[in-house]
Amino acid sequence: MALEQFNKAADLINLEDDIRQILSVPQREVHVALPVKMDNGKVKVFVGYRVQHNNARGPFKGGIRYHPNVSIDEVKALAMWMTWKTAVVDIPLGGAKGGIAVDPKALSQGELERLTRRYAYAISKFIGPYEDVPAPDVYTGPQHMAWIMDTYSALTGHLEPSVITGKPVETYGSLGRNDSTSRGVAITVAEAARRLNLKTNQLTVAIQGFGNVGSNAALIMAKEYGMKIVAVSDSKGGIYVKSGINVDKALEVKEKTGSVVNYEGAQKISNEELLTLDVDVLIPAALEQVITDRNAGSIKAKIISEGANGPTTPEADRILYEKGTLVVPDILANSGGVTVSYFEWVQNLERRQWTLEEVNAELDKKIRKAFNDVYDTSKQLKVDMRTAALTLAVKRVSDAIRIRGIWP
Ligand code: NAD
After folding, report:
1. Are residues 193 and 136 in the same domain?
2. What are phi and psi of 38, to 5 degrees?
3. Counting beta carbons within 10 angstroms of the beta carbon of residue 243, is it exposed (0 to 12), middle (13 to 18) or buried (19 or more)?
4. 180-200 pLDDT, tens per residue?
5. 147, 171, 195 — which closes off a domain?
């Protein structure tokens, strides 16, 4: 799929075969065997990967995933996808991804720490502040990043925070990273509204998924942009309040009872019904492939901003484009996270912590610019926003390769 998408974008800009060949394969694939002493005294060997797709625009960048299904092919595709993501939002970094095939829920905290440190040791020759800067992904978080920073620092003999991002704020993490993905989503919606001549503070919004991305997006959109959140949902179902949901209250209900469905005075709706509500903005922020050829025709939102990765199928994309729905693709809509990761790296390199206001102001600038670059490209090429984003990214990376040349 990743290759197919790349070739489609490459065709649109008539990319020469030389560069097409270069970008079709990762620059480096690292496979590592990780012996770990388990709590029962026995050794278990896990398999890990780090795939570095392209660094023409800057050091490799991408998360580390712990999941039983991690495979080299998945990591290769995700690494290529990171190259496009950093290029779309125009940060001076490349694309990479890493992972360990493991069920992290089956390990104790001690086993997890030993596994993480062994992985950091095994890939330590290939990462570094100017080589490759990993970050969290599925089932990894600030603590894992701190262990990797510590292991790498021990190996190099000095503290090196800029080797990895997504660290705890107490140890060189950035302020504002927690809700950075959601903030990016909100900014793309505000910018889309501006281009469509809609008033931001008159928009009604439905959000599928009330986890990290969905709930923070709801808070930011309601409190900072004055949008009216009329529907939210989680895995147990959804709620609809025509006059608007009090997001703080919904969060409280979710925390106390485990689901937003217990919000008082709301109409209960299904996750499927939420998608086709009569709203201005729809934010899928839960699962993949929820907008399909079965429901795309009934979607009434004028703007869809993809907080989740891959919520829209290619068939649905075609239907939505034909009826004029503006879909902000995941690669752009949820790039706030990697953008603040980049800010964390910059702060670490300059050994200075930015204020929350500085982080948010820089994020705003970056995402606004990226949105408008993609929007203008989509108008110029007469293609949907997803194709435009990918095409723009492929062009930026190709230009860098061409201008730098091949050596030796
Ligand atoms: P999360 O686990 O915090 O939240 C997921 C939410 O989806 C929960 O509210 C859960 O109840 C809900 N959900 C689960 N199954 C559902 C179903 N069948 N129907 C409706 N809702 C359901 O996860 P998150 O970090 O908010 O991530 C959400 C999406 O955003 C994922 O696709 C993730 O890859 C993507 N994403 C997240 C980040 C980030 O910074 N967290 C960055 C980029 C992309």
Report:
1. no
2. -85, 170
3. exposed
4. 999 999 999 999 999 999 999
5. 171
For residue 364, what is the enclosing H or E element? helix 356-381
Q: 18 in a domain, yes or no?
A: no
Amino acid, res. 82: M
Residues in the chain: 408
For the segment 210-217, the average pLDDT, to the nearest whole number, is 96
Ligand 1 close to Cβ of residue 213 (< 6 A): yes
DSSP 302-363: SEEE--SSS-B-HHHHHHHHHTT-EEE-HHHHTTHHHHHHHHHHHHHHTT-PPPHHHHHHHH
Residues near 360 by Cβ (< 8 Å), separated by ≥ 6? Answer: 176, 183
246 burial level (CB within 10 Å; 0-12, 13-18, 19+):
middle
Q: Give the domain range for residue 96.
A: 27-171
> Ligand 1 center to residue 129 CA distance, Å?
30
- Residue at a domain's end among 315, 333, 351: 333
Q: Which of 97, 228, 254, 366 is catalytic?
A: 97
Annotation says 97 is catalytic: yes
Both 48 and 126 in one domain: the answer is yes
Q: Is 16 helix (H, G, I), strand (E, B) or coil?
A: coil
Q: Is the CB of 287 under 6 A from ligand 1?
A: yes
Q: What does the buried/exposed string (b/e) look like for 335-368 if buried means 16 or more CB atoms within 10 Å of the residue's CB?
A: bbbbbbbbbbbbbbeeeebbeeebbbebbbebbe
pTM, 2 dp = 0.96
Residue type, 336: G
**Structure tokens given for 40:** 């029962």
